[in-house]
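Example for tutorial group B:
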């Protein structure tokens, strides 16, 4: 994030120096070049002060863990820059970087509940905005691209806070990490995404058996039990509980399957109590 700020400041300073040079050295017969240069100087100066003060203030609040103030400041910056982008006015590369940055931070804070109530629906909106803003620019900083894809994958994988679990959508975003030509990610991100993709394939294979009308009752119960065990192993207790409870009260389940479900439910309750 600091690198983004440095690049924006450097570019704004260069533009300011250019405007000053034009003011001093270029004089048209009717003074139009001088007027234009002065106007450009004041515009750049205003933009520079806006970038410098607003982002520095937001960043300072964030670093001090004053998340409510940081969130509100990021929202103000995002609103101003989004309006400018929609208006069709000239948009500097530094402003694209800035918009991507604030959109990501707004999304991440909504996702984690930092300074604002958790809201996955709003988080999804801003993560998608961050990716979209990157895609409309050929020169944008891609520091937040991989994080946006992984966060969207996690939101749809686990669900909650207004979002239903959707493994196909989760898979789409995890795969996006590898398919986007400019996504930069570390080795740990790659391994994480690969693990989630493998998990999704396993879950969907069990669900195909469970939801297939042609599957026998015996096969469905085995698939439910395997899926419940998988959820339990991966600490997704609510999903595991739902399946274990279903097996425990299923008349077609064997006594061994019912006992297994009952034992695992006991472990889950014991872990919940601590």
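The residue assignment follows.
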């Amino acid at each position: 994030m600091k690198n983004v700020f440095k690049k924006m400041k450097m570019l704004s300073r260069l533009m300011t120096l250019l405007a000053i040079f034009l003011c001093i050295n270029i004089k048209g017969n009717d003074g139009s070049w001088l007027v234009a240069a002065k106007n450009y100087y004041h515009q750049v100066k205003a933009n520079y002060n806006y970038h410098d003060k607003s982002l520095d203030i937001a960043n300072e609040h964030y670093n001090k863990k004053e998340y409510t103030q940081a969130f509100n400041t990021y929202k103000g910056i995002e609103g101003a820059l989004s309006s400018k982008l929609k208006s069709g006015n000239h948009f500097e590369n530094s402003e694209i970087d800035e918009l991507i940055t604030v959109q990501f931070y707004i999304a991440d804070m909504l996702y984690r509940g930092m300074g604002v109530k958790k809201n996955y629906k709003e988080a999804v909106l801003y993560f998608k905005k961050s990716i979209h803003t990157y895609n409309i620019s050929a020169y944008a900083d891609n520091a937040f691209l991989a994080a946006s894809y992984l966060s969207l994958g996690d939101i749809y994988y686990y669900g909650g806070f207004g979002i239903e679990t959707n493994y196909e959508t989760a898979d789409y975003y995890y795969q996006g990490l590898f398919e986007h030509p400019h996504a930069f990610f570390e080795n740990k991100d790659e391994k994480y995404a690969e693990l989630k993709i493998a998990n999704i394939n396993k879950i969907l294979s069990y669900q195909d058996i469970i939801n297939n009308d042609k599957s026998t009752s015996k096969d469905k119960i085995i698939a439910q039990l395997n899926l419940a065990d998988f959820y339990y192993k991966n600490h997704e207790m609510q999903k595991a509980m739902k399946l274990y409870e279903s097996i425990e009260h299923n008349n077609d389940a064997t006594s061994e399957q019912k006992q297994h479900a009952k034992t695992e439910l006991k472990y889950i309750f014991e872990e919940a109590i601590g």
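The longest helix spans residues 32-63. Compare this with the pattern of hydrophobic and polar residues in the output above.
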